[in-house]
Specification:
Metallo-beta-lactamase, Chain A, single chain, 24 strands, 2 domains, 402 residues, 9 helices, eight-stranded mixed β-sheet
Length: 402
Amino acid sequence: MKKFILLLMTALMLMAGCEEITERPEQPSEGQSKEMTVHFIDVGQGDSIFIQAPDGKTMLIDGGVKGAGKELVNYLKANGVERLDYVVATHPDADHIGGLIAVLNSISIKEFIDSGKVHTSQTYEEMLRLIQDKNIRFTVPKAGDQLTLDDELDIEVIGADETASDNNDASIVLRVVYRNISFLLMGDADHGIERELLRKGIDVQATILKAGHHGSNTSSSLEFVKEVSPLATILSYGQDNKYGHPHAEVIDVLQQTGSEIYSTAEAGTIVVKTDGATYGIDAQEWTGIGATSSVTLPNAKKTEGKVELISKDLHAEIVAIQNNSSEAVNLQGWQLVSMEGNQVFDFPNIILAQGETINITSGPNAKTSADSIEWTKRQIWLNSGDAAQLKNAKGEIVSELQ
C-alpha cells in the first residue's frame, strides 16, 4: 500500500510538472507584432532621424549641425540608447554630420555607414578621425545593399554615389519597410537623383516620406512624389531659415498628391510609431503660420529691445551686435559662440551705448577700430553655414543667427 501511494504521488508530481510545461506557451505569443519607432529629431536647419527597431536595435541617420550635438546625445540617452547598431551619414554637409561628432564622443557605435563622398571640411575630417580612433567598422554602401538591423525590417540603400561631383548628389537614400508600413528617407537628394530612381524602375513607394533637402524646390518633383504616393511627409528645417525652406513649390506638390505635411520647425521632434499594419504620428500637422523657433534653446530670451545679433558675414568673418535696449550695456563677461566649431569669444570690459553697433571680426583681415573688435586672425566661421549665439554674463542665450 505504501508503495502504491508513493507511486501515485510520483505520478501526480510528474503530471503537475507536465501541466506546468504545457501552460508556458500560452503566455503572450511570439508572433504578436512589436512596435517600431522612428524619430525625426528637431535639430533646427538640418536632418537627424533615429530608428528603434521592433527587436530594440537602433540606427541613427545624420546628426544635424555641430551645435545640435549635445542635445542630440541627451535625446538618445533619454530614450535608453547606450549603443547604436548603425550610424548613417547620408552625405558630408555640416547640417547632417556636425552633430555626429558629439555622438561619436558619447555613445558606442557598432558600424558607421558613410556616403564615401570626400570632403575637406574640418568637421568631416574630425568625424573620420574619431571613427578611426575608436576602431568603428566603416562601410561605404552601394545602391542595392541591404542593412541588417532587424529580421523583420527590410532596409535597402536605393541611392548612393560616392563619386558624385556634388555633396547632395552623393546622398544615401534609404527605404525602410516594416510589413505594410514603409519609410523613404531622401537625405538631400535632388531632382536628378529622383529621375534616376524612377528611370531604373526602383520601388520608391512609401507610407512616410522624409522630403529631400529640407523642403527645397531642388527636390520633391511632382512626378516623383506621385510615384512615392506618401500618406504623410516630414519636412526637417529650421524656422525662419535663410534659404526660405520649405519652398512653396514643394508644399503645392504635397498638397496636390494628398499627403499630410509635418515639419520639425513647427512641431519639434516628430515621432512615428508603427506595428507594421497601422501607424500613428505624434505631432500636429503643418500649418505654415504661427510657428515657433525650431532650435531648442532652453535659456533663450526674446530679443526685442535687447542686445542682439543683427548680421553675420561668414566670408568676411564679421558679426554685428547692436544694443536695442533703452540703456547702455556693459558686455564684460558676455560671449559670442561659433556653433559649428564651438569657438568662443569673451567680451572685454566694453560699454555698448543705446543704439550702438559693435563688429566682432576674425580671419586675416580682422582688426580693432572705433566700431570693431579683433577676435583672432584665424578663420572662425564655416562658410557653408555656421550659427552664431550671443550669451550674456549669466550664460543665458539672448540672441541667435542661423
